[in-house]
Amino acid sequence: xxxxxxxxxxxxxxxxxxxxxxxxxxxxxxxxxxxxxxxxxxxxxxxxxxxxxxxxxxxxxxxxxxxxxxxxxxxxxxxxxxxxxxxxxxxxxxxxxxxxxxxxxxxxxxxxxxxxxxxxxxxxxxxxxxxxxxxxxxxxxxxxxxxxxxxxxxxxxxxxxxxxx
Length: 165
Description:
Shape: globular
Distance between the termini: 31 Å
Helix content: 10-25%
Structural class: alpha+beta
Strand content: over 45%
CATH topology: Jelly Rolls
């Protein structure tokens, strides 16, 4: 595996079901946009800070990293035609954690990460439902175009509790 990312298991099957249920329950907190920064043709859901079930799962991500906080987080679904162009995250984001929640009849929609030390070479990151990929803000990444099906993920942008001087 390329050292620019790692794949971990943060959530169990019950957690994945709970996060998918949060998706369903947050229809009223939906943003469907043709473009949102580097994301195209995706549906976003932003669960409430009072949603105990969602917050418990978010805490698992924080606990996995240790001395980090969730800076921004949301649920995201790519439908047919959805993709993320190659980009890196804002430096305020220390680490990005992306968990695959659902991949119903998915063709395309692969996570792509630029390999460190290899000029513009992209690695196709094979994720199974429940896998979380973690990478730094400076790592170029993308999602290939979804040709069929859906790709649902949880995105967590994490920052260190204390900035180093």
